[in-house]
Amino acid sequence: MQKGLDLLLKKYSAADKATFTEDGFVEICGEKYPTLPWESERRFIELRNLVLSGRIGNMCTYRIGHTAKKGTNLYGLLFREIGILEFTVNSTVKEIFAIAGNNTLNCIAETENGCVCTIELGATLKAGEADVDKHEIIADNGVACDRAVDTQVPQSSIYVYGKNGATYLDTDAELYGYSEIEINTIRNAFLLASKPETREAAADKYEHIAKVVMAAEKSLETLENVKVGG
Amino acid sequence: MKRLKIAMMSMTHGHTRKYYDVLKNNPKLEWIAVSTANEEVKEIFLNSVEGIPCYDSDEAMLDAHPEIEAVVLASENSEHLRQVRLCAERKINILSMKIPTFDMDEYAEMEKLVEESGITFQIELELHYNPVVMRMKELVKKGAVGEIDAFNATNITLSPVWAFPWQGVPEKSYGKRVPIKESHEKFRGGALCDHPHIFDLIREVTNSEFDVIFAKVAPNMRHEIEEEDMLAVVGRMKNGTVFSLDPSWSRKENKLKVPGPGWEIFPKRMEVNLVIHGEKGSMLVDCFGPNTYHNGAPENKYTVQYTYFDEWVGLIDEFVENIDKKRLPKINLAWHKETIKAMNAVYESIATGKAVKFD
User: Fold this and answer.
1) Domain termination site, one of B91, B119, B147
2) Residue B318: inside a domain, yes or no?
3) Is B177 contained in some domain?
């Protein structure tokens, strides 16, 4: 990923240099900052735009589902999905109820702007199977979703059948060849490097999301709806 | 072959029109008559079906046709107990709509009436006759995903309140006027009361009963109706299976008086999708898809045209056979009571803000 980040830093003459660290952060001017890759993922940017522009109206509910590979840390997955929720509805989670199975975690989270969100997580897929996720915002003037109506799984850009069967999803020409998560992580790190004003905000968001995940863990223990930071 | 002499009452329920074809075409049935609850549904019926006598009251129909052996209670929930009393005293078998009542005292009276009269009482939960659901159950039994760890389901539709106004009246849908929670402007009786199916299905598929239920009501999508239309439910079954159930009216509709083309604003009117996670994998299930699609009249917007929809054929076949063989229906009052209790627990959790734990 560093190569891709260096490419963007050089091409656009970014304000500061940036280096990915081994623990998943990005180091800029001697300080470590968290990346929030979903904030640079185009489908989530479009969902957020649909909310911010008022096109779908006032928030009602939000349905998030994400099935990942067996062994995936469900709290890590919850961290990402809370980040996506807060970014796309432009609000923060104020309370959460969580309940868990062996490889599953279900939550109801409510945001400050009144959105009631269900988060359904599973870690059941085998190696080689692609994650299945869906984000559907339901508001009083319409629905915004990153999946097509009447489908159950994410779609790809190219499907090759026959002896060389494969599927491809390509969304970024400048970073062609990188995976989706790599592209979004590189783009987010580049944002931090090129716009210094975003760095503290990213750190604050990261800290808040961690508190939401802690509240979910507390809910699992108590079987209660837990206020974030309470 | 002796045909079962069947009638329909009230004709106010949203599923009324689903019975037109099966009652006319099923060779095991002889459609005797209908009674209509008001002039509006009477006119709709008379414009839809020819040759079936139509009466202005249930009593008038039953008095005129003592040969009636079975009745479909196509009525608002608040009318069910009165109609069960009427049928039980005449020993007429009953196919009830999906919510007999939310009042557990009324429910107990219905159970007593049915037991004492010896009639067959079957509850209409059409998902049991859906071929996708049949396949899903078969796969679960064969262990396709191993032991179930989570069962997540949607039962989301447009709101029927414009075509079937009683569903927008708390007293007729829920049975009484109860605020959804303290200082809240909406009342019980909305989307939840319309969608018992997934609360029933999870019990059958997991072979377990509800242990914990937590629910929240969300801001209404339709500000002008009195009842809840958006809610979320999570919890756990006694065998440890966790769940997430969405029974919302989250698909917007045009305010048609009679359902038909152009009813939907969101392209798909209704969705029952399941995600079942097990120890060996996951299963994604669309009970009503895929379909065919168009952007033709009247709205010229991209629309899902429902393509596979024949649940009522199997449902009626089973009802006739249950009466003939004096067999207890699969969805009988005793079985269904736990589903109704779970739905009542959803309302309780919304009102208290706490999880409801079952004994």
Assistant:
1) B119
2) no
3) yes
Q: Are B19 and B80 part of one and the same domain?
A: yes
Query: Domain boundaries in chain A?
Result: 36-227
pTM of the model: 0.96
pLDDT, tens digit, 9 for 90 and up, residues A132-162: 999 999 999 999 999 999 999 999 999 999 9
Q: Could you say which of B95, B119, B143 is where a domain stops?
A: B119
> Is B242 within 8 Å of A106 when comparing Cβ atoms?
yes
pLDDT grade, residue B297 (50/70/90)? very high
* CATH of residue B187: 3.30.360.10
B247 φ/ψ angles, rounded to the nearest 5 degrees: -100, 35
- Helix%, strand%, coil% for chain B, nearest 5: 35, 25, 40
Are residue B99 and residue B157 in the same domain, yes or no?
no
Starting at the earlier edge strand, list the strands of the sheet with B210-217. B281-286, B273-278, B148-154, B242-246, B231-237, B210-217, B356-357
- Residue to mutate among B192, B223, B282, with most A CBs inside 10 A, is B282
- The reply to whether residue A124 touches residue B278, judged by beta carbons under 8 angstroms, is yes
Closest CB to B218 among A100, A116, A126: A116
Residues in B closer than 8 angstroms to A60, CB to CB, are 218-221, 230, 250
One pLDDT digit (tens) per residue for chain A, 230 residues: 999 999 999 999 988 999 999 998 999 999 999 999 999 999 999 999 999 999 999 999 999 999 999 999 999 999 999 999 999 999 999 999 999 999 999 999 999 999 999 999 999 999 999 999 999 999 999 999 999 999 999 999 999 999 999 999 999 999 999 999 999 999 999 999 999 999 999 999 999 999 999 999 999 999 999 999 87
Tell me how close the Cα of A208 comes to any Cα of chain B, in angstroms: 23
Q: Rounded to a whole number, what is the distance in Å from the CA of A38 to chain B's nearest CA?
A: 24
Global ipTM: 0.95
Contact A124 B277 (CB under 8 A): yes
Quick check: B286 and A99 CB within 8 A?
no
Tokens of B51: 């040759």
- CATH of residue B98's domain is 3.40.50.720
Sign of the CA dihedral running A53, A86, A97, B213: positive
Count of positions (residues) in chain A = 230
Q: Which domain range does residue B272 map to?
A: 135-310+328-357
In chain B, the residue whose alpha carbon lies closest to the alpha carbon of A111 is B218
CB contact under 8 A, A104 and B278: no
One CATH from 3.30.70.360, 3.30.360.10, 3.30.565.10, 2.40.160.20 for A36-227: 3.30.360.10
Q: Reduced to 3 states, what is the DSSP secondary structure of residue A154? A: coil
Same domain, B78 and B217: no
